[in-house]
Amino acid sequence: MTQLALFGGGEDGPSGLRYTDDFINAAIEQDLIDRIAALPLQRFQFGAFEGNRRVASFGYRYDYALQRLAEAEPIPDWVTPVARRVEAWAGLPEASVRQVLCTEYEVSVGIGWHRDKPHFDKVFGLSLGSPCKFRFRRRSGDRWERHTLEALPRSLYMMDGEARSVWEHSIPPVEARRYSITFRTMKRT
Ligand SMILES: O=C(O)CCC(=O)C(=O)O
């Protein structure tokens, strides 16, 4: 099992990025894929624009038109055991994960450069079905400093610290259908 914790930043990649292979086994992975594929997934809406990835939000969703969080359907029972496992892996209290996003990336679909909304604190991503290049960049004077994480199916990454708040991330178009489950904790207000 590959475990990676990048605390130093710089050449080694973003500080606050943590990654592990084989977070779940193949049987659980297939069950999660089947569950996500059966959801009423909708193309990602941001204001007047639509992304090609298809998503379902639980707990909260970000309303781009109103620029605020809105309540969403409760986190489904089939996700809860995985959320508990994520919390245990990160050393967080139970029920810290309050937002879950299920995403489907068809072949040739990716996600552009962004940082997650500031309402959320730690962000975790479980990769399902196929690998992706999970890219990071941050400004360094007049150039971009870059880092790429090869996120394998069944792996989990965590973005905290600078990986979360300073670096942007993106995924180039995937070569095979990929699903992901994003788990987010909330910023304390
Ligand atoms: O699919 C993933 O692992 C990343 C998803 C993501 O960055 C997002 O929805 O903001």
Overall outline: globular
> SS-based structural class?
mainly beta
Total DSSP E strands: 14
Q: Look at the structure and give the CATH class.
A: Mainly Beta
List low-confidence stretches.
none
Helix and strand sequence: EEHEEEEHEEEEEEHEE
| Major sheet size, sense and barrel closure | 8 strands, antiparallel
On the 0-100 scale, what is the average pLDDT?
Answer: 93
- Rg calc: 16 Å
Strand order of the largest sheet: 1-2-12-9-14-7-4-3
The tally of helices reads 3
Give the number of domains: 1
Measured distance between first and last alpha carbons: 36 Å
Strand content: over 45%
Furnish the topology, listing elements before pairings.
Layout: E1 3-6, E2 17-20, H1 26-37, E3 42-46, E4 49-58, E5 60-63, E6 68-71, H2 80-90, E7 97-105, E8 111-114, E9 120-128, E10 132-140, E11 143-151, E12 156-159, H3 161-165, E13 168-171, E14 178-186
Antiparallel strand pairs: 1-2, 2-12, 3-4, 4-7, 5-6, 7-14, 8-13, 9-12, 9-14, 10-11, 10-13
The structure holds 2-oxoglutaric acid.
2-oxoglutaric acid binds next to strand 7, strand 13 and strand 14.
